[in-house]
């Protein structure tokens, strides 16, 4: 796929180096034509990406948190593939929204992730998705997202 | 696999057209010999499929909600494959039960999904499964289920 | 991979026969070069593996619960493969931590699982991982973990 750099600029988003894992796990595993990505969280130095939907995070802030988690995952994919030329399909996006028991707009929050993927890569970035509400997330972040993507190993850049 | 139509009838269940996605995601992605299905929710016009286990939804209602989520996912599979002849294995069923902190019968609730699959398709529909309790789900539904299934692309109907 | 038996001994851990499923699902499904494992829970006859992090389970106890869930999953893998010689990669480890809304150390708890895998099998057991907090789990256990592993079917023992 081709990432549309202009969309990044318009949104004031920037790709950054892949985050380092903090335990005995790694940010992604390649198996055959797939990358399985660890859960990525919305940590970007911006306080609004912490907290609970339905309490101290608005839906709009939650959407930005979901976008931040995707940027975090794209950094990992870019690091693993040397770019996005070898990215063929976004197979699955599983989103976990830190929220209160009465919050029911998990899908709207995760649209901040899904919409960004399609804006950046075009309609072929459409993906299967799950959106659930969870009682808490690591470090108190608002959103965590894991992904499975299909790659073309022959198109990987060095 | 062959779906046993008589079981559907006996249970008063009906297959319906695949639901439309409501965002930048799609109901399923095919990759190689697999379909990855988005999280399907127990929305069927029946109020008893909303709410929380341990509070306003009984275990029996939760089992019907789990069955409704499976019917919803089967609609997607049927739409993608043109029937069930190309369905080879139910690889994974991941179930999320909307519940209170002290509810611990998630497995019983999800049996409403697992049992239905085996009743409809026979023992070869046995699958791996996860059952967890979540603080909230989209629209306030009682159950959400995503799936991975193995298919035989050569057996797909037009 | 080779399981280091000495590490098991040092830790006082023991492999046991694969647990039986309690519904229409099975403990794992093989598809191609993969095993998809059902969610395994931290049930071992030890009460400290029940309960909620942030309330009645300490982080250290949670780490032991995560290790117990991994031992439970390794029993399933051993049963399916006839040993660990055909185990090639730990692709994904998805961990669900039963916790209170203000508990944010899910990653630390799951390190009890990730670290054990690397101690038992060496660095090639590094894996992708998700860690989320959930409001409740089946039977009230502290930790549930599902996994996807890559296998070499030709190396399977009878």
Q: What's the gist of this structure?
A:
By secondary structure, chain A is α+β, with helices and mostly antiparallel strands.
Strands, helices and their partners?
Three copies of one chain form a homotrimer.
Chain A: H1 5-11, E1 28-31, E2 34-41, H2 59-81, E3 87-98, H3 106-121, E4 128-134, E5 143-151
Parallel strand pairs in A: 3-4
Antiparallel strand pairs in A: 1-2, 2-5, 3-5
Features:
158 residues; alpha+beta; 3 helices; homotrimer; 5-stranded mixed sheet
Architecture overview:
The structure is a homotrimer of 158-residue chains. By secondary structure, the first copy, chain A, is an alpha+beta fold. The first copy, chain A, has a single domain (5-9, 28-153), classed as 60s Ribosomal Protein L30, Chain: A (2-Layer Sandwich), CATH 3.30.1330. In chain A, 29% of the residues lie in helices and 25% in strands. Chain A is built from three helices and five strands, in the order αββαβαββ. Chain A has a five-stranded mixed sheet, covered by helices on one side. In chain A, strand 1 (28-31) and strand 2 (34-41) form a beta hairpin. Chain B binds chain C through residues 33-34, 54, 89-94, 99-107, 110-111, 114-115, 117-118, 125-135, 148, 150, and chain C through 22-29, 31-32, 36-39, 52, 94, 96, 100-101, 134-140, 144, 146.
């Amino acid at each position: 796929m081709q990432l549309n750099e202009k969309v990044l600029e318009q949104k004031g988003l920037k790709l950054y180096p892949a985050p380092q894992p903090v335990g005995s796990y790694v940010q992604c595993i390649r198996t055959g034509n797939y990358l399985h990505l660890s859960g990525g969280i919305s940590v970007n130095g911006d306080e609004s990406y912490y907290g609970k939907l339905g309490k101290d995070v608005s839906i709009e802030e939650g959407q930005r948190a979901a976008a931040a988690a995707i940027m975090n995952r794209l950094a990992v994919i870019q690091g693993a593939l040397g770019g996005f030329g070898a990215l063929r399909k976004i197979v699955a996006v599983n989103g976990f929204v830190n929220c209160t028991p009465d919050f029911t707009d998990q899908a709207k929050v995760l649209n901040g992730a899904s919409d960004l993927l399609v804006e950046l890569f075009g309609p072929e970035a459409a993906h299967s998705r799950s959106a659930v509400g969870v009682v808490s997330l690591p470090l108190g972040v608002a959103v965590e997202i894991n992904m499975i993507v299909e790659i073309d190993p022959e198109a990987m850049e060095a």
